[in-house]
């Protein structure tokens, strides 16, 4: 590889490497000490809804069906109070070429790489996104490198990640597998610098614009099927792009009154960068190990300013347990004949609980599914958990303990969507904002306006929280 390869030297070149790999000068969008012109960053991709859909359609992405889950709706009504039990629908994103909604974000990124003349594409991800980028690269004839955080220091890989390695390689990508630790970003920067490939970042503006088509489609499909926009859309939440893109697409379709619920698997207490904890989670994405840090500070991404900014868009944030997701996975298979992977079933588990509290005429949409197979099956995940000494049993999901005990419900009435306190999340976001400020740098009017938009609050709220936080720092 070129240049000084020491960790310090590569990190010192980080901004230049990223700028060259995404072709965006992020400094152009700076409007304050913290603020940047978010909407212009997205607009400058050059894509509107129709052009994004056209690019996706050319490689078979999008246009997935919205399915009514009639038997699951009946099950919810059987355990709900009289008159309760909303209609459940599911956007079957497993119908995309690589089997998940990640094809939508990958399609625009790979198309851009080709259009701008990059010799290939690279992505740092252990999730479905790697397979999506590899699939789209294969369709456009571009080489592809995927860097994965794949196993712990004993060489034990999560079965779900091993399945994604297989999928990436099947599409012809080179996969670099790493153990858990801080070297992922360093290795990824070296790959970008050496190859000159396009950085198909999950957090780049093209990526988020690609997901907007998902929200747009499901809004119009619900309108066609039900005569109304969805009352609630439940989105599995990890790094924020899924929430952001879906919400923006819904708005563009005119569904401005739809409630956006972000749902994550509760992995409180487990540290994603911990060698011990890495395999003690049963899901590679859609859990609080990603969603909480990326909600409270989205700019921890591999680009200077993330286009995925979930706190701007979520109306509610809920968690479910690992056991509830496994339970929902089995219900979907047995009652609806749909065997799908765990990511979309995270929001399905939350939807089953939320629909129980709503009037029957209300419409609830689970906005994604993902393909399943091999390591994505619950049995593979539960076998790994058992081998690590994690207890697996049936019972009350309130007894679930991340990393210690997986409790699979015995009855659908036990499913619950547990609310995350959004005020605490907003305060945590503002604490991170304060910590990111250069020393003695005063906030400008543009910064306050930006923070108000980021937290969906008011100038008075931002000032009150920041004032309190500054007091604790003295």
Task: Tell me what the structure shows.
This protein has 474 residues and is of the alpha/beta class. Among the domains are: 50-98 and 205-419, Rossmann fold (3-Layer(aba) Sandwich); 422-472. Helices cover 46% and strands 12% of the residues. It is built from 18 helices and 13 strands. It has helices at 7-12, 14-22, 38-43, 49-58, 70-79, 102-115, 128-140, 159-170, 183-195, 205-226, 241-253, 288-296, 322-336, 342-356, 378-387, 422-436, 445-455, 459-473; strands at 66-68, 87-91, 121-124, 144-151, 174-179, 198-199, 232-236, 259-265, 316-320, 363-366, 391-394, 405-408, 418-419. The strands form three sheets. The chain has a seven-stranded mixed beta sheet, with helices on both faces. The chain has a four-stranded parallel beta sheet with strand order 5-4-3-6, with helices on both faces. β3 (121-124), α7 (128-140) and β4 (144-151) form a beta-alpha-beta unit. α4 (49-58) crosses α10 (205-226), α6 packs across α7 (128-140) and α6 (102-115) packs across α10. The longest helix has 22 residues, at 205-226. It is globular, with a radius of gyration of 21 Å.
């Amino acid at each position: 590889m070129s240049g000084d390869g020491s960790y310090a030297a590569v990190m010192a070149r980080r901004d230049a490497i990223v700028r060259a790999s995404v072709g965006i000068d992020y400094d152009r969008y700076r409007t304050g000490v913290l603020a940047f012109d978010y909407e212009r960053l997205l607009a400058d991709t050059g894509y509107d809804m129709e052009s994004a859909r056209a690019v996706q359609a050319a490689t078979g992405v999008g246009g997935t069906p919205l399915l009514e889950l009639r038997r699951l709706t009946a099950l919810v009504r059987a355990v709900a109070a009289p008159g309760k039990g909303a209609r459940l629908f599911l956007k079957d994103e497993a119908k995309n070429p690589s089997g998940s909604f990640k094809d939508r974000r990958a399609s625009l990124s790979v198309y851009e790489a080709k259009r701008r003349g990059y010799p290939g594409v690279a992505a740092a991800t252990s999730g479905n996104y790697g397979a999506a980028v590899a699939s789209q690269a294969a369709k456009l004839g571009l080489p592809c490198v995927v860097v994965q955080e794949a196993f712990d220091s004993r060489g034990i890989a999560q079965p779900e990640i091993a399945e994604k390695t297989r999928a990436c390689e099947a599409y012809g990508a080179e996969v670099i597998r790493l153990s858990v630790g801080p070297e992922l970003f360093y290795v990824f920067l070296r790959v970008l610098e050496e190859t000159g490939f396009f950085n198909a970042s999950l957090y780049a503006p093209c990526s988020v614009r690609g997901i907007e088509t998902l929200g747009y489609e499901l809004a119009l499909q619900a309108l066609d099927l039900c005569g109304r926009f969805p009352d609630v859309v439940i989105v599995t939440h990890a790094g924020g792009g899924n929430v952001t893109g879906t919400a923006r697409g819904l708005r563009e379709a005119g569904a401005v009154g739809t409630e956006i619920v972000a749902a994550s698997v509760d992995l409180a207490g487990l540290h994603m960068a911990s060698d011990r904890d890495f395999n003690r989670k049963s899901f590679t994405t859609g859990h609080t190990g990603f969603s909480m840090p990326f909600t409270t500070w989205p700019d921890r991404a591999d680009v200077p300013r993330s286009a995925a900014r979930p706190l701007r868009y979520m109306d509610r944030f809920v968690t479910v347990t690992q056991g509830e997701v496994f339970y929902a996975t089995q219900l979907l298979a047995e009652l609806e004949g749909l065997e799908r992977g765990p990511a979309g079933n995270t929001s399905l588990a939350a939807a089953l609980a939320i629909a129980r509290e709503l009037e029957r005429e209300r419409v609830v949409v689970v906005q994604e599914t993902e393909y399943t197979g091999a390591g994505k099956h619950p049995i593979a995940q539960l076998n790994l958990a058992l081998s690590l000494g994690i207890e697996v049993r049936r019972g009350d999901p309130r007894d679930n303990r991340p990393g210690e005990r997986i409790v699979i419900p015995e009855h659908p009435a036990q499913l619950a969507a547990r609310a995350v306190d959004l005020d605490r999340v907003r305060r945590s976001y503002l604490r991170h904002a304060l910590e990111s400020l250069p020393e003695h740098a005063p906030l400008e009017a543009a910064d306050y306006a930006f923070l108000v938009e980021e937290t969906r609050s008011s100038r008075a709220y931002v000032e009150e929280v920041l004032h309190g936080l500054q007091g604790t720092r003295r």
